[in-house]
Each structure stands twice: as structure tokens, then as C-alpha cells.
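Study this one:
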Amino acid sequence: MATINKTFQTSASAMEMRHYIDTKILPQAALKPLLEKVSWSENTLYINSKLGDGHIILRDNEVEIFIELTLFGSMAKKTLESAIDKEFKQLKS
């Protein structure tokens, strides 16, 4: 299976990033199919969808993303990675 495994350095605290994810990333139409079912446990967002399962771990100044894609998710990997890159790179500033 294909995976998405990325780490981003940011200038934000874990709490700031969690707020950003809740308000800016989760509502995004491009990521909605991947973020179909999500749940927070402290600073980890668990993801479960038809496209893949995984997690996003928040640490001060760092975001770690790991998603194991399903067959359907594998077909959309480039699109999903582009959307993830676009949204999470905004946390650098």
C-alpha cells in the first residue's frame, strides 16, 4: 500500500496548530474525503476514511503526518499530497 509520510517544521505551538487544523484544514473540500472521520487524543489527530487511515502528530514547531492509503487513496495520492503540502506549509510563517 502507498503511504503519505511527511514532517513539516513550523513557527507555531501545538495548540496553535490544532486550532488551525480545526478551523482551516478540516473544512477544506480537497481534504474532506481523506478527513472523513477524525478524532483528537491530546495532540494527535487520528484519521479514518475510505482513502486511508493514519494520524497527524503535533509538537511545538513540528507536524508529523502518516497516512496509509487504501487502493482508492493510492489513486489520489498526488492530489492529496498537494493539498496537504499547500495547507501545512502555511504554518511556517
